[in-house]
Here is the input.
Amino acid sequence: MDCIFCKIAAKEIPSNLVYEDEQVCAFYDLDPQAPVHVLIIPKAHIASAQEITPENSAAVAHIFEVAAKLAADLGLENGFRIVNNCGKDGQQTVQHLHFHLLGGRQMQWPPG
Ligand code: 5GP
Ligand code: ZN
Here is the structure.
């Protein structure tokens, strides 16, 4: 499968990895939108949040545990934002489930 995030998870293409375990990995976004901008992905290919099922959702729960740990490790004690863009209306551009962990500045609400 020609999936850039599968290739990053398999280390077939390089990334600035910040965390890895059996289920997930996390790496810095190429085009950061905040002082801290990390992408957290399941290693197994899940195309989008529309594809989360009872069979694969444990990885998603684990991603949120990793997000809390990374936020603490990266100094985001004032808070952070986790974003998932899903599908065309959600402006998803990479078709492998990923969660943006954003922090280090005051976020705005609502999003555009
Ligand atoms: P999406 O719009 O799908 O939610 O976000 C995809 C994100 O992946 C974007 O923020 C983009 O900058 C990032 N991205 C795309 N290709 C690469 C890559 O090869 N390496 C890294 N580190 N980030 C990427
Ligand atoms: Zn993939």
